[in-house]
What we know:
The complex is a heterodimer. Chain A is mainly β. Chain A contains no helices and eleven strands. In chain A, a hairpin with a 5-residue loop joins β7 (64-68) and β8 (74-78). Chain B is mainly β. In chain B, β4 and β5 (44-49) form a beta hairpin. Chain B is globular.
Amino acid sequence: AAGVIQSPRHLIKEKRETATLKCYPIPRHDTVYWYQQGPGQDPQFLISFYEKMQSDKGSIPDRFSAQQFSDYHSELNMSSLELGDSALYFCASGRVAYNEQFFGPGTRLTVL
Amino acid sequence: GQQLNQSPQSMFIQEGEDVSMNCTSSSIFNTWLWYKQDPGEGPVLLIALYKAGELTSNGRLTAQFGITRKDSFLNISASIPSDVGIYFCAGLSTSGTYKYIFGTGTRLKVLA
């Protein structure tokens, strides 16, 4: 079965640089979620999209932005990176009608 | 805001033993999801619960949606070494937005 695809899987950036993370949801899923997970922490909700429209916002810094495109893939843009942004970033997708959520393998971002 | 208390935080058990963990909240949830996460990987959906009182099994796993809709538990029977990992509960918020609240995780270690 198809799963959520994330790229890149690993990313190393310098402070103050910009990063773009990509997410390709499971086909026919109408909702995409982004999470940030620090070491030893539970996933923290950043932002979600339903049918390409932003549906909810969590603890997403103003330096971050995200969008979902016409082909349903989503991108998380992170600017002015800080050391504290180093974390695992997960994308998840699901169908609202089924109250489900499936995670991708994550992108490990390291900010030096 | 809505919070989930997950317990225990960590468990060390012998192979073959049964395991029980739970999530509680002061808020009501419409859906409970249980995930297992291996280090550096994305959470994998184990069981989804949609109705108060619902009891669902997936192999050696059994989960229940509490009658009050404020709690859920996960049982693992006859644990094996590959059950090692972090288990998260996630509740679907009823606060007017469509997002999941995560528990703090239960770290399970199985001693052979």
